[in-house]
């Protein structure tokens, strides 16, 4: 089972290099907080104050705040994305599985937020390819610096490779 999953896991030379560069430091930082690399991850994004938070599950099953990353830029204002092309970044609850990872992104590395979800579709909201990515530019996505997306991507990929389903 693991081998078939590993074969389906998206990867590229760029993502492997980025992960190998940041993994040793992340492992040390996580260990200092009693957390493990590959533990399930939970991400919260706040347009105001422009922060992406990373939380990891501890041995006792609680999620512990690991780190904040400043969002380089996002599009629009407070409020949800309503339609394709409105240049608004989405707000809501989204799930990212391995198929949402994009190690070949034009914006360094990225993962698709999964917008529109069922709630968005029920409210006739449209849009596609809404990502968290590097390269610090946005027309509806949450853009991070390449340094930050390397860490966020590595943590997400490690959790998914370790068995977190989304």
User: What is the assembly state of the chains in this entry?
Assistant: single chain
How far apart are the first and last residues' alpha carbons, in Å? Answer: 17 Å
Biggest β-sheet description: 5 strands, mixed
C-alpha Rg, in Å?
16 Å
Order of strands across the biggest sheet?
A: 4-8-7-6-5
Give, in order, the helices and strands.
HHEEEEEEHEEH
Name the structural class. Answer: alpha+beta
Q: Uncertain runs with pLDDT below 50, 5 residues or more?
A: 1-7
- Count every beta strand, where a strand is a DSSP E run of 2 or more residues: 8
Whole-number average pLDDT? Answer: 94
Shape from CA axes?
globular
* Tally of DSSP helical segments: 4
Residues in helices, as a percent range: 25-40%
Our estimate of the beta-strand percent is: 15-25%
Features:
166 residues; alpha+beta; five-stranded mixed β-sheet; 8 strands; 29% helix; 20% strand; disordered N terminus
Give an overview in words.
The protein is α+β, with helices and mostly antiparallel strands and 166 residues long. 29% of the residues lie in helices and 20% in strands. The chain contains 4 helices and 8 strands; from the N terminus they run H-H-E-E-E-E-E-E-H-E-E-H. The strands form 2 sheets. The chain has a 5-stranded mixed beta sheet, with helices on one face. Helix 2 crosses helix 4. The protein is globular. The two termini are 17 Å apart.
